[in-house]
């Protein structure tokens, strides 16, 4: 405060300078003026450095031989040894395929559902009913994934609700959680149950911003409700759809890791085991840190490439992107 | 049903067509179906929690408890480890939320200063971590090497700042009138005083929302504890529940899957599920709208 220059008080006819040129901001000047502000950022920066950026650098152990209890970044260079290793690892290719399949199914079935539900909710005229449906459908989102997994396993257990229905139509009960063929349907269905309501929030917000006059004009042009939805509503929420699609594609490889870890078992590995669960078993359970880190790094890089390409494609085709 | 409501203001002359009325009816049925399907698993699990084990085994429990009893609740609640882990969850949640709020508020406040030199870099440092992260193994190695295993820090520190929450707070701070802070500065308050005395009192709503965001996510989290803790008495209740479930369903041991299934009663699992989700369910009606507005704020300004 003390260094602030006193503004000229004297009312003189000034030779009208170009409105006082803003002083060039040097770091030294900025630091001296705003050091208190910067000091607030120190602890958060330390957090990002240690817990976000250090692990990124820590990925070098994928190229180095790491031994538990040894140096943080591994002992010595082995180059692409671990990458070649998973390249010829049949289990890797199995989990890679599973990741693609589950990611693809998620994109196909889970991504459009909130849009459909939001469109349906948007047509509800009773505010009370709309609020009611929303409140109930958001609910599963607030539960711990452990609770969700527990509920799912209880539902599909031999004595569970699903098997009661199976028995009701005269079939023998099925041991769902032990059959590879059932894992994906269970995963996708439960994912839908858990996320569809919450997913509508952003679309409903986007729907309120669609210009009402466009509907008027469409109606004047003789468009019925379906055509209005097709030509006005959907284009209106397209930016939101694209943003969420990009984000979803970015998470393509990181398919519900925690949920799969809670739901799968060795019997369902053939369909349920994905890259991240494999990384967990290879690294944390078996202690092959460098090998697991190599697979994990491969996964994150694919994820990063997917986000960037989806964003680029989206920018070029529809003109909206995340950045 | 008798009192016919006046139709809402619709453009005159355009009556909803017959097809549209049919659609409205179908829509109502579909959405009611969504509600029922969403609620069904909850009702089912609660019914199981109050039922006798033999009725669950024979697949008779659906929407209503059979052989109503409270003994399973007594059994679970008399397990001292359950309460130890429940208390751990509370402690972890409180400490983690406090730390997260302080760090997030500080950084968000700095990021909200539009003419701060280097602001773009500071934003970039945070946002980049949304798209690329170190991965499980480097994180695991790091936390282990820092000696945080079996301590509360393994849960609290690695997830201290959520970038989405950070952006929500930043957007809120940016919406505050600049003049207030300028006036405070003229009155001789320094940055810390401005933040504490001017900005934070005006931000009660957003801070409350952030507390909810963090508290719910820490309350629900299980994986860091599962990863970094191997002492039973340090587990949060979510890991307690996870271990119960995995022993009830055979977990990772193939050969004994069906035998082990008999060891932990389905009603015990159901009771633990109900008790674990109970706090969230109780506060849910009150917190839900804050979440919704927070998500929208983050989405608009993110």
Automatic annotation (TrEMBL), chain A:
This protein's superkingdom?
A: Bacteria
- Domain (ABC transmembrane type-1): give its ranges: 96-310
Q: Where is this region: Disordered?
A: 1-21
Q: Where in the cell is it found?
A: Cell membrane; Membrane
What topology does it adopt in the membrane? Answer: Multi-pass membrane protein
Positions of transmembrane segments: 35-54, 95-121, 141-162, 244-264, 284-308
Q: Answer yes or no on keyword Metal-binding.
A: no
A biological process (GO) of this protein is: transmembrane transport
Record Pfam families: BPD_transp_1
Its cellular-component GO annotations read:
plasma membrane
Q: Which UniProt keywords apply?
A: Membrane, Transmembrane, Transmembrane helix, Transport
**UniProt family annotation:** Belongs to the binding-protein-dependent transport system permease family.
**Name assigned to this protein:** Sugar ABC transporter permease
UniProtKB/TrEMBL annotation, chain B:
Kindly give the InterPro entries that the UniProt entry links to this protein.
MetI-like, MetI-like_sf
- Compartments in which it is found: Cell membrane
Tell me a GO biological process for this protein. Answer: transmembrane transport
Instruction: List where the protein spans the membrane.
Output: 20-43, 90-110, 122-140, 152-173, 194-219, 264-287
GO CC terms in record: plasma membrane
Question: Keyword set for this entry?
Answer: Cell membrane, Membrane, Transmembrane, Transmembrane helix, Transport
Q: Which family does it belong to?
A: Belongs to the binding-protein-dependent transport system permease family.
Q: What is this protein called?
A: Sugar ABC transporter permease
């Amino acid at each position: 405060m003390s260094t602030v220059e006193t503004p000229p008080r004297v009312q003189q006819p000034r030779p009208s300078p170009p409105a006082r040129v803003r002083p060039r901001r040097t770091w030294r000047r900025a630091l001296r003026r705003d050091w208190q502000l910067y000091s607030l950022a120190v602890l958060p920066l330390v957090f990002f450095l240690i817990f976000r950026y250090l692990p990124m650098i820590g990925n070098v152990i994928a190229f180095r031989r790491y031994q538990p209890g040894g140096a943080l970044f591994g002992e010595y260079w082995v180059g692409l040894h671990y990458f070649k290793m998973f390249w010829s690892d049949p289990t890797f290719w199995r989990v890679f395929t599973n990741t693609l399949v589950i990611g693809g199914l998620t994109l196909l079935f889970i991504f459009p559902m909130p849009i459909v539900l939001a469109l349906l909710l948007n047509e509800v005229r009773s505010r009370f009913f709309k609020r009611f449906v929303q409140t109930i459908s958001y609910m599963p989102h607030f539960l711990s994934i452990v609770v969700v997994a527990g509920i799912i396993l209880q539902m599909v257990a031999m004595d569970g609700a699903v098997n009661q229905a199976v028995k009701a139509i005269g079939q023998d009960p099925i041991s769902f959680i032990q059959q590879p063929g059932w894992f994906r349907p269970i995963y996708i269905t439960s994912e839908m149950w858990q996320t569809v309501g919450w997913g509508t929030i952003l679309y409903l917000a986007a729907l309120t911003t669609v210009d009402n006059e466009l509907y008027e004009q469409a109606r004047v042009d003789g468009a019925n409700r379906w055509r209005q939805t097709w030509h006005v509503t959907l284009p209106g929420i397209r930016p939101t759809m694209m943003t969420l699609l990009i984000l979803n594609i970015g998470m393509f490889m990181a398919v519900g890791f925690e949920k799969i870890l809670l739901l799968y078992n060795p019997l369902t590995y053939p369909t349920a085991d994905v890259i991240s669960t494999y990384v967990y078993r290879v690294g944390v359970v078996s202690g092959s840190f460098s090998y697991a880190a190599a697979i994990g790094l491969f996964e994150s890089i694919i994820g990063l490439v997917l986000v960037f390409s989806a964003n680029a494609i989206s920018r070029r085709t529809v003109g909206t992107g995340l950045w | 049903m008798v009192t016919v409501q006046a139709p809402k203001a619709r453009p005159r002359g355009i009556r909803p067509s017959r097809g549209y009325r049919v659609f409205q009816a179908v829509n109502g049925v579909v959405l009611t179906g969504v509600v029922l399907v969403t609620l069904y698993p909850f009702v089912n699990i609660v019914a199981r929690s109050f039922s006798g084990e033999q009725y669950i085994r024979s697949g008779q429990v659906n929407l209503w408890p059979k052989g109503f009893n409270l003994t399973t609740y007594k059994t679970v609640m008399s397990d001292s480890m359950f309460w130890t882990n429940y208390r751990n969850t509370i402690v972890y949640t409180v400490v983690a939320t406090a730390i997260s709020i302080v760090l997030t508020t500080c950084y968000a406040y700095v990021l909200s200063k539009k003419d701060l030199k280097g602001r773009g870099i500071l934003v970039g440092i945070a946002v980049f971590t949304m798209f690329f992260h170190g991965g499980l193994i480097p994180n695991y190695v790091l936390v282990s090497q820092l000696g945080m295993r079996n301590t509360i820090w393994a849960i609290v520190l690695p997830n201290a700042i959520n970038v989405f929450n950070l952006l929500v707070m930043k957007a809120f701070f940016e919406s505050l009138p600049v003049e207030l802070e300028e006036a405070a500065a003229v009155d001789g308050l320094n940055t810390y005083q401005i933040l504490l005395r001017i900005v934070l009192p005006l931000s009660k709503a957003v801070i409350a929302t952030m507390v909810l965001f963090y508290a719910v996510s820490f309350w629900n989290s299980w994986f860091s504890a599962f990863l970094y803790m191997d002492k039973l008495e340090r587990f949060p209740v979510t890991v307690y529940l996870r271990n119960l479930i995995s022993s009830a369903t055979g977990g990772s041991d193939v050969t004994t899957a069906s035998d082990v299934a008999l060891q932990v009663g389905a009603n015990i699992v159901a009771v633990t599920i109900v008790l674990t989700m109970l706090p969230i369910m109780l506060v849910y009606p009150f917190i839900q709208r804050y979440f919704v507005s927070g998500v929208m704020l983050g989405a608009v300004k993110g």
